[in-house]
Amino acid sequence: MEIWNVDPVLFKLGPLQVRYYGVCFAVALLGGYLLWRWQILRSGRSEAVAERVLLPSVLAVVAGARLGHIFFYEPEIIAQNPLRAFYVWEGGLASHGAAIALVATLWWYSRREKIAMEEVSDRFAFSIAWAAAWVRIGNLFNSEIVGRVTTRDYGIKFPRFDGVALENVPYRIPTQIYEAVMGFAVMGLLLWADRALGGEKRPRGMMIALCLILYFSGRFTVEFFKAQQGFVNDSNSSLTMGQYLSLPFVAAGIVWLWSSLRRRGAR
Fold first, then answer.
1. Per residue of the chain (267 residues), what is the pLDDT tens digit?
2. Based on the structure, what is the number of domains in the chain?
3. Which of 29, 135, 207, 249 could form a disulfide with 125 if both were Cys (CB 3.0 to 4.6 A apart)?
């Protein structure tokens, strides 16, 4: 068993703070863009085509993640002070909100560039898995999105989360690490599947289908081990908001996979 008590601030420049979370977010964006660029250039398109999705997708992810958190987990903030919805520095970003905003952005981009939505989504799937993993590493440095209390040997103390004397801090399941590993594993499986299916010869829709099914099924499972947060206001429900929000993405992935395999079989 270990203690995680890392200061989330990497260093300070006068009044400005550079946090580990911000560095992880930057790595997520940079790596995500390079993966996307690789996919676009491999298709025979120009780098300019790849670059045109960068700014809209970044803005959509940040805004969608923040608004998703407010809407799904802390709607009372709107009543208290509507402007706090834009205080991204306070923390509180929801991956499901980011995913919804990103889908809308990719749909807009596909129409603008006249590229089929399935192809755009396929080429972005690698970036999604990469970014999801690095965001969870950022959550680890922030001592947030922690797991439930445990007595198992793999438990970790998060004194910055529990805010009590160290001897009273409980050991918790390190769910941030679980989800980070899961994100990298999904990306690895996508890279393997891309190669196994012939790269550019792969069935359209296959990559995004696998990404949605694998990642959000994993997310649904990990939610069972997280500290209670965002439970639906229903005494008969044992599922979290995150689990309910994961189900539509898994269903969409299954539909996409079925459609992709059907078209492949019709060739």
1. 699 999 999 998 888 888 898 899 899 999 999 999 999 999 999 999 999 998 998 888 888 877 777 777 777 777 777 776 666 655 566 777 888 888 899 999 999 999 999 999 999 999 999 999 998 999 999 998 899 999 888 899 999 999 999 999 999 999 999 999 999 999 999 999 999 999 999 999 999 999 999 999 999 999 999 986 655 545 466 788 889 989 999 999 999 999 888 876 555
2. 1
3. 207
Packing angle, helices 117-141 and 206-222, rounded to 10? 30
Domain span including residue 233? 2-266
